Amino acid sequence: IPVYLALFNLHRRLQPAVAVLAVVLFFMGAAVYFSSNTIFSMLALSSQYASALEAEKPLIEAAGRAALAQGADLTPGTFLGITLSQLGGFIMAWGMLRGRLFGRWTPWFGLFGFACMIIFFPFAAFVPAQFTTAMLISMFGGLALMIYHILLARRLFLFILARASTLIALREAVIEKRKLAAINEEMEIARKIQESIIPRQVP
Questions:
Q1: Cα(201)–Cα(203) distance, rounded to whole angstroms?
Q2: In this predicted structure, which of 10-24, 40-54, 112-126, 132-146 has the lowest mean pLDDT?
Q3: Hey, what long-range contacts does 104-112 have (CB within 8 A, 24 or more apart)?
Q4: Residue 163's CB: how many other CB atoms inside 10 A?
Q5: What is the mean pLDDT of the chain?
Q6: Does the pLDDT of residue 191 top 80, yes or no?
Q7: What is the pTM of this model?
Q8: What is the DSSP letter of 164?
Q9: What is the pLDDT averaged over residues 45-49?
Q10: What dihedral do alpha carbons 160, 165, 106, 136 form, nearest 10°?
Q11: Is the pLDDT assigned to residue 74 strictly greater than 60?
């Protein structure tokens, strides 16, 4: 989420429509994914299972299987959230390519990786018979996204260093301006003192 906020801040003037659409899709996907994911319900069921009686454990196991069938990863229950977030990443990479702040290779790796993952998730969720073929696609997509995130982190770090250098330079310029203003003020005071002591005309 912080990465997408940083990318939105960088592209909101260069590619405002693309940046807004990408961030909206990503946050919608994240919200849908977390609301449909069963990690918290499984945590609660595991706590109940640990303290349950033997007669109650089969019921808790059945509830756990039902929760996994509904909201486990790579199932129809989480398909919409994951797909929306990957689509948001694809659109953001497209905006990065058009904005040219990150060069050419970084957005192209992102476009290829997100496109592979967008193809992979429907196969994994709805066509389990083709899961092996889908995994081959996701393997190339995952490698591309690893390179994309490494290049993205490197470029963002360079942006931070450049911004920090700019802020330091501005701070030093402000300090020098204040020093110059103080010197000018002292010179003006000295001039007034000199004028009050030395007459303008010789008697």
A1: 6
A2: 40-54
A3: 105/151, 106/148, 106/151, 106/152, 106/155, 109/144, 109/145, 109/147, 109/148, 109/151, 110/144, 110/145, 110/148, 110/152, 112/140, 112/141, 112/144
A4: 10
A5: 82
A6: no
A7: 0.70
A8: H
A9: 74
A10: -40
A11: yes
In whole angstroms, what is the distance from residue 77 CA to residue 87 CA? Answer: 17
Q: Which amino acid is at 33?
A: Y
Query: What burial letters (b/e) apply to 107-134, b meaning 16+ CB within 10 Å?
Result: bebbbbbbbbbbebbebbbeeeeeeeeb
Residue with tokens 């967008």: 118
* Cα first-last separation, the chain: 81
Question: Which pLDDT score, from 0 to 100, does residue 39 have?
Answer: 66
SS3 109: helix
The pLDDT value given to residue 122: 86
Contact 86, 72 (CB under 8 A): no
